[in-house]
Amino acid sequence: MLSVVGVLLALYVVWRVVWPLRVSLSLRGPLGLLVMSLALHHRIVARFAGTMASPELPKPVLAVLATGFTALLIGALAVLVLDALLLGARLLRCPRATAALRTAWLRPAAMGVALVVSAYGIWQGMAVPQTRHIEVAIDGLPAQFDGYRVLQLTDIHASRLLTGTWVAKVVANSNALSPDLVVITGGLIDGTVTARPADFAPLAGLRAPDGVIAITGNHEYYAQYAAWMQAFRAQGMQVLENTHTEVRRDDAVLTIAGVTDPVAARYGLPMPDLAAALAGADPH
User: Fold this and answer.
1) What is the torsional sign of CA 20, 36, 74, 58?
2) 185 - beta bridge partners?
3) Core-most of 94, 129, 190, 194, by most CB within 10 Å?
4) pLDDT digit string (tens) for 158-197?
């Protein structure tokens, strides 16, 4: 589906932006092919270097591809908006607005802005995330858990793009917060166990008095699900697959339940089941 949408948007960009450029065909042709290649780069990379979920390419190459593909999507939407406004101006018979919206440089400029926005977004996506502090009020929470600090990490995606060095910084920042419990809500890795040992290894350094609890996200299923569950547990994580665990403070108990990801249906694995996860849990 992603490829189909990408190709349609790429064709639109070629038609409305690339082909009208006042340059020679020898330049427009390769530029059009580049736009189409960006739309299909997931498929191309999966054919020659890894998979769609885990491209095995150098980090700078992945960053460039991600920037280009995102710019294509944003730019195509911007051009669609401009063309919708142009259509509206023509229907309303507004010659000045029509002339302005037909300006030759307008759509190439929109693509340029999209490229800048995309580059900034990818750069931010590769930065070590900033901590957000959220206070959660829970009715009936035992007094022993007042002020209990839970650190949630999600979608770490250890990969060739977000390498072990990056993961180690996330772990160091996490430990500096001195949480009582760490919960990881899926998306830990991209790739196979054999491809990601160095990138995943720093997660073993997460520290909290009540340990590290994890659940699966969709990406855990894309490569060696069973092997990753074993690897997570070998790192000291407690993985909750439609089950629960308890955290105790004196005679007070906090129940932590976790379910699987719906993408499990594609692989014949257990679907998320909250009732099963809470079976036998203290109702209080």
Assistant:
1) negative
2) 215
3) 190
4) 999 999 999 999 999 999 999 999 999 999 999 899 889 9
For residues 229-252, one letter each, b for 16 or more C-beta atoms within 10 angstroms of the residue's C-beta and e for the rest, the string is: bebbeebebbbbbbbbeebeeeee
**Beta pairing, strands 252-258 & 181-185:** unpaired
To the nearest 10°, the Cα dihedral for 100, 101, 104, 108? 130
> pLDDT by residue (tens digit) across 215-259?
999 999 998 899 999 999 999 999 999 999 999 998 899 999 999
Contact at 8 Å (CB) between 152 and 170?
no
- Pairing status of strand 237-239 against strand 252-258: unpaired
Distance CA 103, CA 125 (A): 34
Residue matched to tokens 């719906």: 262
User: How high is the pLDDT of residue 2?
Assistant: 61
